[in-house]
Amino acid sequence: MQPEALAWMFTGHTDWVFALAFAPDGRRLASGSFDRTVKLWDVESGRVCETLTGHTDKVRAIAWSPDGRTLASCGFDQMTWLWDVEGGSYRLTLQGHTAAVHGLAFTPDSRILLSGSDDGTIRVWDVASGQCLHIMQGYAVSLYDVAWSPDGTQLASAGSDMLVTIWQVEGRTPPDQLRGHSWIVHGVAWSPDGRLLASCGWDNAIRVWDANTGTCVQLLRDRDHVDTFFYGIAWSPDGKFLASGSYQRGMYLWEVATATCHWISHTAPTIMRRIEWSLDGTQLVSCNDEGSVCLWDASDGHLRVSLQGHSGMVKSVAWSPDGTRLASGGGGQGSGEIVVWDAHSGERLSILSERGGMTYALAWDSSGGVLISGGGDGALRWWDVQSGERMLLREAHQGKVQQLRCSPDGAQLASCGDDGAIRLWDLHRGEHLHTLRRDRPYERLAITGIKGLSEAQKASLHALGAFGETNIGG
Questions:
Q1: CATH superfamily name and code, 17-137
Q2: pTM assigned to the model
């Protein structure tokens, strides 16, 4: 079968286009872009009919009302705009969300609009008046990174709730929450002396915090590209520099004291997810969605070598304790793989395969003989590196395991994931020690003996913190 010819190429936006929606009659197409505009196109001719301006930040989603009279758009400015498509102007702005708005849906009668936001709420709006009729509060926090304090008494986490959270490892006091990021926080790291905490996020911000007071003492941004998304972050061994990976922009190296960006390693557009320093501070290793593991000269950002051998994306990378080997994890098409490399020659030493989904996180034990991996199925696996055999399997998280970190004394392992929990493990025996988690809506609610709950309702209550068994019937 021959592919159909391209009818039109719609050109006119000056930045990424993340939202497209056809009008109900199919004659017009609406597009929303990171250039802060919404454009209406005539489908038959491919020409721009209208350019709708007003958003003060990137546009993320758009939706037509079923009657075709109203177009809704939303984005990073935390507002939803209602446009009169016939008049080519806005009718109303809907304000109330406290974070980026990513989803919109009209009811079939075009009278009600629903908006979903990173603030964890769905808001129900009356389209005619712009009044918020109802707020539905959700509970979904993913933790993307976790880091031990150098003395091993605290953990810091970064997540989708835009917070940097500091936990006492023993869990006897409520966690401290550091506020300042305006979107997802994807990376967090303690300085080697424990005085500072660095975090980075999708809001083009790297924040350096005083770990004792929770005050932001330094703010690092890419001044030339306001739409930079930062992922992993790592301190140099001497505590003078921060390295961070990004989406499409490459790796950044910052001198913290002067807030100076020393270099940016420009690479092919990709997501550079994790960054790690070598023990001597002369090299950096990164991994990306293009399937590469890259070694960089820390002094000038020169690419020393690109290690090829993964069959899909690479989500995690870790140096062995003695710095002679690298482990990288990733995969594709439902299977995971771990590759162990000689850090000096770049030789691929071994491949470990797992069937539980992509490998998202890796950690070495202190001896360098065992690797622990976290998978897309929420499980942890302990591997004997020499034999390639799996030693232990532990169910850990609901959803993906996003990060693994060994404690400074090498005795414990911290894992975090899509369920918003940090779980602590005996690293050598694989025993679960305890869980750190902010209170969920029904935390510690006893539901034993309650009648009339369906299996779905029961599962939902348990996921939100309730405990005990119920009687389904009656």
A1: YVTN repeat-like/Quinoprotein amine dehydrogenase (2.130.10.10)
A2: 0.77
